[in-house]
Amino acid sequence: MEVITINTDTLNDAMTMLKQTSRTFYIPISNLDFGLKEAVTSAYLCMRAIDEIEDHEELADPLKIELLSGVYEAFQSSDIIESIQNLLAPHKEALPEVSMRLDEWLMLCPPTATPIIKQYIAKMSLEMSEWVQNGWNIHTEEDLDRYTYSVAGMVGEMLSELWLWHDGTQSDRDKAIAFGRGLQAVNILRNKLEDANRGVNFFPDGWGFKEMQQYTRRNLQLADSYIADLKQGPALKFCKVPLALAHATVNLLAAGGNKLTRDAVLKIVSKVT
Question: By 3-state DSSP, what share of the chain in percent is helix, strand and coil, each rounded to 5?
Answer without folding.
Answer: 75, 0, 25
